[in-house]
From TrEMBL:
Keywords: Membrane, Transmembrane, Transmembrane helix. This is DMT family transporter. It holds the Pfam family EamA. GO terms for cellular component: membrane. SUPFAM superfamilies: Multidrug resistance efflux transporter EmrE (SSF103481). The keyword Cell division does not apply. Residues 1-127, 141-261 form the EamA domain. The keyword Membrane applies. Gene3D superfamilies: 1.10.3730.20.
Amino acid sequence: MLAGMFLFALNDAMGKWLVASYGVGQVLLIRSLAALIVLAPFVWAFGPRRLFSLERPWLQALRVAFSTVEVFCFYLAVRDLPLADVMTWWLASPIYVAALSPLLLGERVGLWRWGAVIVGFLGVIIALGPSGAVSPVATTAAIVGTMCFALMMITGRSLRGTPDTALVFWQLIGAGVAGAIAAPIGWAPPKALDWVLLGLLGVVAMTAHLSVNRALKLADATLIAPLQYTLLIWAMILGYLFFGDVPRPTMLLGALLIVGSGLALSLYPRRAPVVGP
């Protein structure tokens, strides 16, 4: 789990570096193709025909739509905002899931969980406070992206019978198609080193997903979920080393409230989902 969180942070840092020079669509397209190459052996073992005979196809399509918008918004947000800021908002997604689960999943949310949700939303508001360089587009993308990520997790919880290979495959297909549509806008021929980074972007993301899935099979989710917040530590370190980002005091305070709320939700008997952009 710790390795997976580091790889996710590394993937996000590389993505931030690349979208500074290339369009979001171009990055998504090449990233998805590279990840599909890594996933190919798992798809072959799973059985390609089984990818087209999944439960509740309409819900599968809805999940892919949410995941596609989420990853597109992530790269739009991280292009103009500090890496740690963006990761702080994405780590708030379990809070949105807890708030929406009574309405969309019919789950009961007790007083303790509602208290944690309120504290978490307060942390989001504080973390969204103005910084030295406010970007309305990036901030809007971050808000929309985190909501789509939460909705993706909720729909995923309704598709527990679908194997991980199928979920990841269609998620990559959705992102790849969106990337192919948007790629011609501002396409720039990648440099030799950037071709390597664009390819590694998909490989690192796939390895991170595999690490997290393996961790969840080896230990209970209530023990593993709190480790997801090490992602924020890595985001701060990599953001400072590669981009010179220094976390704002308001962001740190908001992050503290979000992490505290998320830990309360994940350690409560009802399990909170584990994230992974």
